[in-house]
Protein backbone atom coordinates (compact mmCIF):
# COMPACT_ATOMS: atom_id res chain seq x y z
CA UNK A 1 0.00 0.00 0.00
CA UNK A 2 1.33 3.43 -0.94
CA UNK A 3 1.70 5.83 2.00
CA UNK A 4 1.12 9.56 1.98
CA UNK A 5 4.47 11.47 2.13
CA UNK A 6 5.02 13.09 5.51
CA UNK A 7 7.01 16.04 4.18
CA UNK A 8 5.17 19.36 4.03
CA UNK A 9 7.28 20.56 1.09
CA UNK A 10 5.71 21.35 -2.26
CA UNK A 11 5.64 18.51 -4.76
CA UNK A 12 8.40 20.05 -6.92
CA UNK A 13 10.87 20.54 -4.04
CA UNK A 14 9.97 17.07 -2.72
CA UNK A 15 10.78 15.54 -6.08
CA UNK A 16 14.07 17.48 -6.37
CA UNK A 17 14.95 16.62 -2.75
CA UNK A 18 15.70 20.21 -1.80
CA UNK A 19 14.59 22.24 1.19
CA UNK A 20 11.31 24.07 0.61
CA UNK A 21 10.36 27.27 2.43
CA UNK A 22 6.67 26.23 2.21
CA UNK A 23 5.60 29.69 1.09
CA UNK A 24 2.00 30.33 0.10
CA UNK A 25 0.61 30.26 -2.51
CA UNK A 26 3.99 29.44 -4.16
CA UNK A 27 7.34 28.60 -2.60
CA UNK A 28 10.32 30.87 -3.32
CA UNK A 29 12.42 28.10 -4.89
CA UNK A 30 9.84 27.52 -7.63
CA UNK A 31 9.55 31.27 -8.20
CA UNK A 32 13.33 31.59 -8.51
CA UNK A 33 13.43 28.77 -11.07
CA UNK A 34 10.68 30.41 -13.09
CA UNK A 35 8.23 27.53 -12.86
CA UNK A 36 4.72 27.26 -11.46
CA UNK A 37 4.72 25.83 -7.95
CA UNK A 38 2.56 22.66 -7.97
CA UNK A 39 1.41 23.26 -4.38
CA UNK A 40 1.35 21.05 -1.31
CA UNK A 41 -1.58 18.66 -1.72
CA UNK A 42 -0.72 14.98 -2.08
CA UNK A 43 -3.00 13.46 -4.68
CA UNK A 44 -2.71 9.71 -4.99
CA UNK A 45 -4.90 8.20 -7.68
CA UNK A 46 -4.95 4.78 -9.27
CA UNK A 47 -6.53 4.61 -12.69
CA UNK A 48 -6.03 3.44 -16.25
CA UNK A 49 -5.29 6.08 -18.84
CA UNK A 50 -4.53 6.21 -22.53
CA UNK A 51 -2.44 8.80 -24.31
CA UNK A 52 -4.39 11.99 -24.92
CA UNK A 53 -3.94 14.84 -27.35
CA UNK A 54 -2.27 16.97 -24.69
CA UNK A 55 0.53 14.41 -24.41
CA UNK A 56 0.93 13.86 -28.14
CA UNK A 57 4.15 15.04 -29.79
CA UNK A 58 4.00 13.96 -33.40
CA UNK A 59 7.45 12.81 -34.52
CA UNK A 60 6.33 13.20 -38.15
CA UNK A 61 6.04 16.97 -37.66
CA UNK A 62 9.62 17.00 -36.37
CA UNK A 63 10.78 15.13 -39.48
CA UNK A 64 8.92 17.61 -41.71
CA UNK A 65 10.71 20.54 -40.05
CA UNK A 66 14.04 18.79 -40.56
CA UNK A 67 13.28 18.18 -44.22
CA UNK A 68 12.31 21.82 -44.71
CA UNK A 69 15.71 22.87 -43.35
CA UNK A 70 17.69 20.95 -45.89
CA UNK A 71 19.33 17.67 -44.86
CA UNK A 72 16.98 15.55 -42.71
CA UNK A 73 19.30 12.55 -42.63
CA UNK A 74 22.23 14.46 -41.12
CA UNK A 75 20.11 16.14 -38.45
CA UNK A 76 18.42 12.89 -37.50
CA UNK A 77 21.80 11.13 -37.32
CA UNK A 78 23.10 13.74 -34.91
CA UNK A 79 20.21 14.04 -32.50
CA UNK A 80 18.69 10.56 -32.61
CA UNK A 81 21.43 8.69 -30.80
CA UNK A 82 19.40 5.49 -30.55
CA UNK A 83 17.32 3.90 -33.32
CA UNK A 84 13.62 4.69 -33.07
CA UNK A 85 11.55 1.51 -33.19
CA UNK A 86 8.61 1.76 -35.54
CA UNK A 87 6.30 0.26 -32.89
CA UNK A 88 6.60 3.52 -30.92
CA UNK A 89 4.95 5.44 -33.70
CA UNK A 90 2.17 2.87 -34.01
CA UNK A 91 1.31 2.35 -30.34
CA UNK A 92 2.49 5.48 -28.46
CA UNK A 93 3.60 8.30 -30.76
CA UNK A 94 4.58 10.53 -27.84
CA UNK A 95 7.38 8.14 -26.83
CA UNK A 96 9.47 9.04 -29.88
CA UNK A 97 9.25 12.76 -29.18
CA UNK A 98 9.95 12.28 -25.47
CA UNK A 99 12.96 10.07 -26.15
CA UNK A 100 14.34 12.61 -28.62
CA UNK A 101 13.79 15.42 -26.11
CA UNK A 102 15.54 13.48 -23.35
CA UNK A 103 18.51 12.64 -25.54
CA UNK A 104 18.82 16.26 -26.63
CA UNK A 105 19.04 17.39 -23.01
CA UNK A 106 21.57 14.67 -22.20
CA UNK A 107 23.81 15.73 -25.09
CA UNK A 108 23.52 19.37 -24.00
CA UNK A 109 24.81 18.34 -20.58
CA UNK A 110 27.86 16.81 -22.27
CA UNK A 111 28.38 20.06 -24.19
CA UNK A 112 28.33 22.14 -21.01
CA UNK A 113 30.60 19.79 -19.08
CA UNK A 114 33.09 19.59 -21.95
CA UNK A 115 33.30 23.26 -22.92
CA UNK A 116 32.79 25.01 -19.54
CA UNK A 117 33.69 22.37 -16.92
CA UNK A 118 35.20 24.57 -14.21
CA UNK A 119 32.88 27.53 -14.72
CA UNK A 120 29.88 25.23 -14.36
CA UNK A 121 31.33 23.36 -11.36
CA UNK A 122 32.00 26.58 -9.46
CA UNK A 123 28.88 28.58 -10.31
CA UNK A 124 26.12 25.97 -10.87
CA UNK A 125 25.48 25.31 -7.13
CA UNK A 126 25.13 29.07 -6.57
CA UNK A 127 22.74 29.73 -9.44
CA UNK A 128 19.05 28.96 -9.48
CA UNK A 129 18.34 27.82 -12.05
CA UNK A 130 21.65 26.98 -13.70
CA UNK A 131 21.83 26.16 -17.40
CA UNK A 132 21.08 22.45 -17.06
CA UNK A 133 18.10 23.05 -14.78
CA UNK A 134 16.81 25.68 -17.20
CA UNK A 135 17.01 23.38 -20.23
CA UNK A 136 15.54 20.41 -18.35
CA UNK A 137 12.65 22.02 -16.48
CA UNK A 138 11.93 25.61 -17.47
CA UNK A 139 8.97 26.25 -19.74
CA UNK A 140 10.90 28.94 -21.63
CA UNK A 141 13.37 26.27 -22.76
CA UNK A 142 10.57 24.74 -24.87
CA UNK A 143 10.45 27.78 -27.17
CA UNK A 144 11.75 27.50 -30.72
CA UNK A 145 14.76 29.88 -30.39
CA UNK A 146 16.11 27.99 -27.35
CA UNK A 147 15.47 24.58 -28.89
CA UNK A 148 17.20 25.64 -32.10
CA UNK A 149 20.22 27.01 -30.20
CA UNK A 150 20.51 23.83 -28.11
CA UNK A 151 20.36 21.67 -31.24
CA UNK A 152 23.01 23.90 -32.81
CA UNK A 153 25.53 23.35 -29.98
CA UNK A 154 24.69 19.65 -29.71
CA UNK A 155 25.26 19.12 -33.42
CA UNK A 156 28.58 20.96 -33.38
CA UNK A 157 29.78 19.04 -30.33
CA UNK A 158 28.91 15.63 -31.76
CA UNK A 159 30.50 16.55 -35.08
CA UNK A 160 33.75 17.61 -33.39
CA UNK A 161 33.74 14.71 -30.96
CA UNK A 162 33.21 12.16 -33.74
CA UNK A 163 35.47 14.05 -36.18
CA UNK A 164 32.66 14.21 -38.73
CA UNK A 165 32.97 17.30 -40.99
CA UNK A 166 29.50 16.72 -42.44
CA UNK A 167 27.89 17.03 -39.02
CA UNK A 168 29.92 20.16 -38.21
CA UNK A 169 28.74 21.63 -41.50
CA UNK A 170 25.16 20.77 -40.53
CA UNK A 171 25.60 22.80 -37.33
CA UNK A 172 26.51 25.83 -39.46
CA UNK A 173 23.30 25.38 -41.41
CA UNK A 174 21.32 25.28 -38.15
CA UNK A 175 23.15 28.42 -37.03
CA UNK A 176 21.73 30.36 -39.97
CA UNK A 177 18.16 29.52 -38.99
CA UNK A 178 18.79 30.26 -35.31
CA UNK A 179 20.34 33.60 -36.20
CA UNK A 180 17.22 34.60 -38.14
CA UNK A 181 15.02 33.75 -35.16
CA UNK A 182 17.26 35.82 -32.88
CA UNK A 183 17.15 38.78 -35.28
CA UNK A 184 13.35 38.68 -35.23
CA UNK A 185 13.26 38.75 -31.43
CA UNK A 186 15.78 41.59 -31.19
CA UNK A 187 13.82 43.63 -33.73
CA UNK A 188 10.63 43.27 -31.67
CA UNK A 189 10.57 45.65 -28.65
CA UNK A 190 8.29 43.23 -26.78
CA UNK A 191 10.84 40.38 -26.89
CA UNK A 192 14.13 42.27 -27.19
CA UNK A 193 15.04 42.22 -23.49
CA UNK A 194 13.56 38.83 -22.53
CA UNK A 195 15.49 35.96 -20.96
CA UNK A 196 14.76 33.85 -24.05
CA UNK A 197 16.38 36.41 -26.34
CA UNK A 198 19.48 36.83 -24.16
CA UNK A 199 19.87 33.08 -23.62
CA UNK A 200 19.61 32.44 -27.35
CA UNK A 201 22.12 35.22 -28.08
CA UNK A 202 24.60 33.76 -25.58
CA UNK A 203 24.40 30.26 -27.05
CA UNK A 204 24.87 31.64 -30.57
CA UNK A 205 27.80 33.76 -29.38
CA UNK A 206 29.42 30.67 -27.85
CA UNK A 207 29.00 28.84 -31.15
CA UNK A 208 30.49 31.79 -33.02
CA UNK A 209 33.58 31.62 -30.79
CA UNK A 210 33.86 27.84 -31.14
CA UNK A 211 33.34 27.84 -34.92
CA UNK A 212 33.90 31.42 -36.11
CA UNK A 213 32.70 32.69 -39.44
CA UNK A 214 35.51 35.29 -39.37
CA UNK A 215 38.20 35.98 -36.73
CA UNK A 216 36.26 39.01 -35.46
CA UNK A 217 32.63 37.86 -35.88
CA UNK A 218 32.31 37.08 -32.17
CA UNK A 219 32.64 40.83 -31.49
CA UNK A 220 29.30 41.43 -33.21
CA UNK A 221 27.56 39.09 -30.76
CA UNK A 222 29.40 40.44 -27.72
CA UNK A 223 28.57 44.03 -28.62
CA UNK A 224 24.92 43.14 -29.08
CA UNK A 225 24.85 41.28 -25.77
CA UNK A 226 26.47 44.22 -24.00
CA UNK A 227 23.62 46.41 -25.25
CA UNK A 228 21.00 43.87 -24.16
CA UNK A 229 22.49 43.59 -20.67
CA UNK A 230 22.52 47.36 -20.29
CA UNK A 231 18.97 47.58 -21.62
CA UNK A 232 17.82 45.18 -18.90
CA UNK A 233 19.73 46.99 -16.15
CA UNK A 234 22.24 45.89 -13.52
CA UNK A 235 19.94 44.89 -10.64
CA UNK A 236 17.97 42.45 -12.80
CA UNK A 237 21.12 40.35 -13.07
CA UNK A 238 21.70 40.02 -9.32
CA UNK A 239 19.69 36.80 -8.92
CA UNK A 240 17.65 34.15 -10.72
CA UNK A 241 18.22 33.05 -14.31
CA UNK A 242 19.30 36.58 -15.39
CA UNK A 243 22.23 36.09 -12.99
CA UNK A 244 23.05 32.81 -14.72
CA UNK A 245 23.02 34.55 -18.10
CA UNK A 246 25.27 37.34 -16.84
CA UNK A 247 27.79 35.00 -15.18
CA UNK A 248 28.03 32.95 -18.40
CA UNK A 249 29.11 35.84 -20.61
CA UNK A 250 30.56 38.57 -18.40
CA UNK A 251 34.21 37.51 -18.87
CA UNK A 252 33.79 37.67 -22.64
CA UNK A 253 32.36 41.18 -22.29
CA UNK A 254 35.60 42.19 -20.55
CA UNK A 255 37.65 40.44 -23.25
CA UNK A 256 35.66 42.44 -25.82
CA UNK A 257 36.55 45.69 -24.04
CA UNK A 258 40.24 44.78 -23.89
CA UNK A 259 40.26 43.92 -27.61
CA UNK A 260 38.43 47.12 -28.61
CA UNK A 261 40.49 49.28 -26.24
CA UNK A 262 37.34 50.73 -24.66
CA UNK A 263 36.13 51.03 -21.05
CA UNK A 264 33.63 48.36 -20.01
CA UNK A 265 30.18 49.23 -18.70
CA UNK A 266 30.88 46.61 -16.02
CA UNK A 267 33.17 49.07 -14.23
CA UNK A 268 30.17 51.26 -13.40
CA UNK A 269 29.04 51.40 -9.79
CA UNK A 270 25.58 49.94 -10.46
CA UNK A 271 27.07 46.76 -11.96
CA UNK A 272 29.62 46.46 -9.17
CA UNK A 273 26.79 46.86 -6.65
CA UNK A 274 24.79 44.14 -8.45
CA UNK A 275 27.66 41.68 -7.85
CA UNK A 276 27.70 42.61 -4.16
CA UNK A 277 23.92 42.20 -3.99
CA UNK A 278 24.29 38.75 -5.55
CA UNK A 279 26.77 37.82 -2.81
CA UNK A 280 24.31 38.97 -0.14
CA UNK A 281 21.52 36.96 -1.81
CA UNK A 282 23.72 33.84 -1.76
CA UNK A 283 24.46 34.38 1.92
CA UNK A 284 20.73 34.50 2.67
CA UNK A 285 20.07 31.42 0.54
CA UNK A 286 22.92 29.47 2.18
CA UNK A 287 24.74 28.91 -1.14
CA UNK A 288 27.64 31.29 -0.63
CA UNK A 289 31.26 30.21 -0.31
CA UNK A 290 34.56 31.82 0.50
CA UNK A 291 35.97 31.18 -2.97
CA UNK A 292 32.78 32.58 -4.52
CA UNK A 293 33.19 35.87 -2.69
CA UNK A 294 36.86 36.03 -3.71
CA UNK A 295 35.91 35.52 -7.36
CA UNK A 296 33.32 38.32 -7.25
CA UNK A 297 35.74 40.76 -5.62
CA UNK A 298 38.40 39.86 -8.17
CA UNK A 299 35.99 40.37 -11.05
CA UNK A 300 35.01 43.82 -9.79
CA UNK A 301 38.67 44.87 -9.84
CA UNK A 302 39.48 43.25 -13.19
CA UNK A 303 36.48 45.10 -14.68
CA UNK A 304 38.35 48.37 -14.07
CA UNK A 305 41.23 47.23 -16.29
CA UNK A 306 39.93 48.15 -19.77
CA UNK A 307 38.99 51.65 -18.62
CA UNK A 308 42.34 52.27 -16.91
CA UNK A 309 44.19 51.00 -19.98
CA UNK A 310 42.11 53.23 -22.28
CA UNK A 311 42.54 56.35 -20.10
CA UNK A 312 46.29 55.81 -19.71
CA UNK A 313 46.76 55.36 -23.44
CA UNK A 314 44.78 58.51 -24.23
CA UNK A 315 46.62 60.58 -21.61
CA UNK A 316 50.06 59.51 -22.81
CA UNK A 317 49.17 60.15 -26.44
CA UNK A 318 47.20 63.39 -26.03
CA UNK A 319 48.25 64.86 -22.69
CA UNK A 320 45.92 65.93 -19.88
CA UNK A 321 43.35 67.37 -22.24
CA UNK A 322 41.50 64.05 -22.09
CA UNK A 323 39.43 65.00 -19.02
CA UNK A 324 41.40 63.04 -16.42
CA UNK A 325 44.53 64.21 -14.59
CA UNK A 326 47.64 62.09 -14.34
CA UNK A 327 47.63 62.20 -10.54
CA UNK A 328 43.98 61.14 -10.33
CA UNK A 329 44.57 58.25 -12.74
CA UNK A 330 47.68 57.18 -10.85
CA UNK A 331 45.68 57.17 -7.61
CA UNK A 332 42.96 54.97 -9.12
CA UNK A 333 45.56 52.51 -10.34
CA UNK A 334 47.30 52.38 -6.97
CA UNK A 335 44.05 51.72 -5.10
CA UNK A 336 43.13 48.90 -7.46
CA UNK A 337 46.64 47.43 -7.14
CA UNK A 338 46.37 47.33 -3.35
CA UNK A 339 43.04 45.51 -3.48
CA UNK A 340 44.34 43.06 -6.06
CA UNK A 341 47.49 42.29 -4.09
CA UNK A 342 45.41 41.55 -0.99
CA UNK A 343 43.18 39.20 -3.01
CA UNK A 344 46.28 37.64 -4.54
CA UNK A 345 47.70 36.76 -1.11
CA UNK A 346 44.43 35.14 -0.02
CA UNK A 347 43.96 33.14 -3.23
CA UNK A 348 47.60 32.01 -3.25
CA UNK A 349 47.05 30.44 0.15
CA UNK A 350 44.18 28.33 -1.20
CA UNK A 351 45.76 27.30 -4.49
CA UNK A 352 48.87 26.08 -2.63
CA UNK A 353 48.65 22.64 -1.05
CA UNK A 354 51.21 23.12 1.73
CA UNK A 355 49.51 25.98 3.56
CA UNK A 356 47.70 25.75 6.88
CA UNK A 357 44.43 27.38 5.85
CA UNK A 358 43.08 27.62 9.40
CA UNK A 359 45.90 29.95 10.40
CA UNK A 360 44.93 32.21 7.51
CA UNK A 361 41.26 32.28 8.52
CA UNK A 362 40.14 30.23 5.54
CA UNK A 363 38.40 26.86 5.27
CA UNK A 364 40.68 23.82 5.34
CA UNK A 365 38.25 21.62 3.38
CA UNK A 366 38.53 23.45 0.07
CA UNK A 367 37.47 21.10 -2.74
CA UNK A 368 39.48 20.30 -5.83
CA UNK A 369 37.22 22.46 -7.99
CA UNK A 370 37.59 25.34 -5.55
CA UNK A 371 41.39 25.01 -5.63
CA UNK A 372 41.32 24.97 -9.43
CA UNK A 373 39.06 28.03 -9.43
CA UNK A 374 41.41 29.80 -7.03
CA UNK A 375 44.36 28.99 -9.31
CA UNK A 376 42.56 30.37 -12.41
CA UNK A 377 41.43 33.43 -10.47
CA UNK A 378 45.00 33.90 -9.28
CA UNK A 379 46.19 33.86 -12.90
CA UNK A 380 43.64 36.57 -13.70
CA UNK A 381 44.93 38.65 -10.79
CA UNK A 382 48.53 38.21 -11.94
CA UNK A 383 47.60 39.41 -15.43
CA UNK A 384 45.61 42.32 -14.01
CA UNK A 385 48.45 43.32 -11.69
CA UNK A 386 50.98 43.09 -14.51
CA UNK A 387 48.79 45.45 -16.54
CA UNK A 388 48.47 47.95 -13.69
CA UNK A 389 52.21 47.79 -12.96
CA UNK A 390 52.98 48.66 -16.58
CA UNK A 391 50.47 51.49 -16.57
CA UNK A 392 52.00 52.91 -13.39
CA UNK A 393 55.49 52.83 -14.91
CA UNK A 394 54.22 54.52 -18.08
CA UNK A 395 52.49 57.30 -16.16
CA UNK A 396 55.57 57.93 -14.00
CA UNK A 397 57.83 58.04 -17.06
CA UNK A 398 55.42 60.36 -18.85
CA UNK A 399 55.33 62.65 -15.82
CA UNK A 400 59.12 62.94 -15.82
CA UNK A 401 59.24 63.62 -19.54
CA UNK A 402 56.54 66.26 -19.23
CA UNK A 403 58.49 67.91 -16.41
CA UNK A 404 61.50 68.14 -18.68
CA UNK A 405 59.40 69.83 -21.36
CA UNK A 406 59.51 66.99 -23.82
CA UNK A 407 56.58 65.79 -25.92
CA UNK A 408 55.33 62.41 -24.75
CA UNK A 409 55.31 59.83 -27.53
CA UNK A 410 54.75 56.16 -26.79
CA UNK A 411 53.76 53.95 -29.72
CA UNK A 412 50.81 51.60 -29.29
CA UNK A 413 52.10 48.05 -29.13
CA UNK A 414 55.43 49.24 -27.76
CA UNK A 415 55.60 50.10 -24.07
CA UNK A 416 51.80 50.16 -23.70
CA UNK A 417 50.32 46.66 -23.27
CA UNK A 418 48.81 45.37 -26.50
CA UNK A 419 45.71 43.19 -26.75
CA UNK A 420 44.89 40.08 -28.70
CA UNK A 421 43.11 40.62 -32.01
CA UNK A 422 40.83 37.59 -31.63
CA UNK A 423 39.05 35.73 -28.86
CA UNK A 424 41.36 32.72 -29.32
CA UNK A 425 44.33 34.53 -27.74
CA UNK A 426 46.83 31.84 -26.74
CA UNK A 427 44.51 29.09 -28.07
CA UNK A 428 44.83 29.86 -31.77
CA UNK A 429 46.51 26.54 -32.58
CA UNK A 430 44.57 23.74 -34.24
CA UNK A 431 45.06 21.41 -31.25
CA UNK A 432 43.51 23.76 -28.70
CA UNK A 433 41.62 22.00 -25.89
CA UNK A 434 37.85 21.65 -25.96
CA UNK A 435 37.60 23.71 -22.76
CA UNK A 436 39.54 26.73 -24.03
CA UNK A 437 36.51 29.00 -23.65
CA UNK A 438 36.27 27.87 -20.03
CA UNK A 439 39.85 29.03 -19.48
CA UNK A 440 39.04 32.44 -20.96
CA UNK A 441 35.92 32.61 -18.81
CA UNK A 442 37.81 31.83 -15.61
CA UNK A 443 40.55 34.32 -16.57
CA UNK A 444 37.87 37.06 -16.51
CA UNK A 445 38.88 38.21 -19.98
CA UNK A 446 42.52 38.88 -19.11
CA UNK A 447 43.73 36.36 -21.66
CA UNK A 448 42.83 39.01 -24.24
CA UNK A 449 45.85 40.97 -22.97
CA UNK A 450 49.16 40.06 -24.64
CA UNK A 451 51.94 41.73 -22.74
CA UNK A 452 54.84 42.68 -24.91
CA UNK A 453 58.37 43.03 -23.72
Automatic annotation (TrEMBL):
Highest taxon of the lineage: Eukaryota
Family matches, as SMART domains: GAL4 (SM00066)
InterPro entries for this protein: Osmoadaptation_assoc, Zn2-C6_fun-type_DNA-bd_sf, Zn2Cys6_DnaBD
Zn(2)-C6 fungal-type domain sequence ranges: 9-37
Keyword Transcription regulation: yes
Keywords, in A-Z order: Coiled coil, DNA-binding, Nucleus, Transcription, Transcription regulation
Coiled coil: 326-353
SUPFAM superfamilies xref list: Zn2/Cys6 DNA-binding domain
Name of protein: Zn(2)-C6 fungal-type domain-containing protein
Species this protein is from: Aspergillus pseudoustus
Amino acid sequence: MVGVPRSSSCRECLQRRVKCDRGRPECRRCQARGIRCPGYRRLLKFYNRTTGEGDFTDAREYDKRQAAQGNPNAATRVLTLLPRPSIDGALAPSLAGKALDRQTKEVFEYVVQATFPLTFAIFAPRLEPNWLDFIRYHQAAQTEPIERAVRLLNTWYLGVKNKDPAVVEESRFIYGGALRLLAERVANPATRGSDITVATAIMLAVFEMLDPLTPHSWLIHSKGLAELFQLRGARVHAHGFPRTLFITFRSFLLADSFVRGEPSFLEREDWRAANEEANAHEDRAGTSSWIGRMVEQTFNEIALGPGLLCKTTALIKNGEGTGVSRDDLTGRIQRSREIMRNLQRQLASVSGRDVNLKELGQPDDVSGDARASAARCLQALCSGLALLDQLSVLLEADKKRSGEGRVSEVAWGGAIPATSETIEGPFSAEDRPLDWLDQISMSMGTLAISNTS
